[in-house]
Specification:
The protein has about 575 residues and is mainly alpha-helical. Helix content is about 55%, strand content about 5%. The protein contains 22 helices and 5 strands. It has a 5-stranded mixed beta sheet with strand order 2-1-3-5-4. Helix 22 links the parallel strand 1 and strand 2.
Amino acid sequence: MTEPLAPPGPPASAAPAPAEPRPRRSWLWLLPAGWLAQVIVRLMITRNLDAPPVYPDETGYLVAARWFTGGPGADLSGATFYQGGYALLLTPAYLVSDDPAVLYRIVLGINALIGAAAFPLGFAALRRLGLTRRAALPLAWTAALLPATTFWSGVAMSDALLPVLVLAWLLCLDRFVRSRGAGAAAAASLLACYALSVHSRGMILVAVHGLVLVAYLVRGGNRRPALIGTAVTVLGAGAATFFNSLVRDRLYPDGTFQVSELLWTRLTTLDGQGWALAGAAGQVWAMLAATWMIGGIALVLMAHALGRRNAPPADRVMAGVVLATTAGIAYATAAGLPDEVRYGNHAYGRYLSCLAFVYLLVGLAALVRMPRVAKPAVLGALVFAGCAAVVALRISGMKPTTHIYLTFDFPEVGLLGGFWTGLKPLWTTLTACALLLLFCGLRRFGPVALVGIMITVNLGAAMLMPAVLLTPRSQPIPPVGEAGRGGVAVAASLNEDRMRSLLIYSRLAFRVSWTELEKFDPAGGLPHEGICTVVVGRPDGTAAEATWPRHPPGWRAREAERRRLKWVVWSAPSCR
């Protein structure tokens, strides 16, 4: 972690201070107790969820976890590639139950166990940023309830893991930068490579991590730790790439959704660069809003530490690491994001949510330790307002009748803008800046006041957001045949729209846990022997009995519908 707030050490001529007695360790029990309390809070937040609210993303991870345990896979060809690193952590759920509701509750429990690690990691970060143990413990606990670390615990997506993974990587890399320890270098390398197996954002982590190691190899001195870290990075990146290729070959046999051509166009044209840079600015704006604008202080302080020549070298390195990772993720994901005629194209906060917790911690340390924060707060607000202006300009010609506003795209931004009534850059910016002013005003009363307002804001938002954004989307999928009996065949095209067809298929792939879905053409022939259930699409205005004209005698049709997606389940009489 960067330490722009650390006090200077004693002068070289000062007499050595007398040795202080080693502090008692009786406080250490607070770390596991606080972690357990975080687990309980996260389970309470997601208590009303018993089915995936986000498709096809969650299915990609859940089906991979099922396949890892020896269960059936699925043909997710044409979808975005959902990497296997996070799915590995979900395998215990499939070892316990096949019931969709029970299984999903176990998955959310795993997410809670992982997400609760934000507290001890946050405590370690605040201690390195110079806070006393008495201040760091309660601040870390309340900061760990930031919606960027709790909201995604309510879905089976890699974003439930990335905030703690990124912070753990930064802490290990910071230890290497300051102590040149080989163990810290190896640990940071392993975490960066694991991130590569979890999500494509891990590529940015590995790239930044590799640049730091190369810099320490080039500059001379004791190169052994950097050399060990480099070797671990090369081997780990190769292992992660090979692992992901196995998942891709099995679950995406006909290929994944490709963005390489789109990415190349964005990187090599002026219009494409404008899209990527504007989208990156929108992501930074959404990320700072997710920190209640406390991250704006952190952004300014890290930029100042990076540019200050007399700053401690380790501070400059770590400031550069955080800023480079932020810029790399924002730019790369914005450049590769297709224009889906939705507001989220211009202010999407999910990709940078893995860094929001880091910015919050650095900003909180500044509020506690710095005698004056007015200047970095004002500069941060100006950056925030500038990014908001870019967003406002980009959406100025958009209308709800022609573009899609998804409340799920704007967890914190939508809340600050007026309870998800639309993307409103002005109101979101004003509300976030008002919160920043409140935090800056309360800091004069000490860390206790910051803890009080932090737990109020974070816990209130963390309880509200899943109830509004996730619970309405978490609808159990109707049964598809009788569990454990016979094969299930699915029409190759369930809807004229490719994405809608994928959304239906992904629901079915999660629901059917006893066999792999087989694709067939309803107009070209009958499914082979052993198939007990056939699923076909149902166009608007079509009766269920007319959706499969060539069905065998005795087969019965049953309609199903979820969130404007319609399909029909045909059952064989021999399997009833």
